[in-house]
Amino acid sequence: MLTTAVTAEVAVLGIALGLVFSLGCYLVSNLSPGGMITPGWLGLVLVSDPRRMALIVLVTVATFVGTKLVQKLVILYGKRLFAAVLLLGVFLQLTVFLVLLHDWPFLFSHGTLGFIVPGLIAYQLVRQPVGATLLATGVVTLLSYVVLLSGVLLRVLPHT
């Protein structure tokens, strides 16, 4: 398993690649791949430390399920739905962060943006068909990952 720390420049490039691929996906299929920045972020996670992907998946699933439960009690749509899903995702990610930080600090090396990514994915899972959203997110993330990993392995991109 390849784990490497990525530089700030590579992180910016990863997010930019994700934006380009996400926009292409949206224009071609009219599906958002878990949000515009998500695939680039997930590609960076896979390049830097793939073990963190399990944590993102677990928090995303918990956020999605929690949102579906809240929707049975409260009418959520539009901006309120977006805010509620993101807040729930950040709350769950922060809770996991506080519980696991002491024992597994490597899971949170680039934590800032990672706190909102599960909420962004869960929001798209609520709004779009689940299977199509997962497929779009997976394909665009894979594209971002392959380009980033190729750059790192070919030593075209800086890494530490």
Describe this protein with a few key phrases.
globular; 160 residues; mainly alpha
SSE order and pairing:
Layout: H1 8-29, H2 38-48, H3 52-73, H4 78-100, H5 111-114, H6 117-127, H7 130-153
Helix pairs in contact: 1-2, 1-7, 2-7, 3-4, 3-6, 4-6, 6-7
Provide a descriptive summary of the structure in words.
- The protein has 160 residues and is an all-alpha fold.
- It has one domain (8-154).
- It is 73% helix and 0% strand.
- The protein contains 7 helices and no strands.
- The chain has helices at 8-29, 38-48, 52-73, 78-100, 111-114, 117-127, 130-153.
- Helix 1 crosses helix 2 (38-48), helix 3 (52-73) crosses helix 4 and helix 4 packs antiparallel against helix 6 (117-127).
- The longest helix is centred in the C-terminal third of the chain and has 24 residues, at 130-153.
- It is globular, with a radius of gyration of 16 Å.
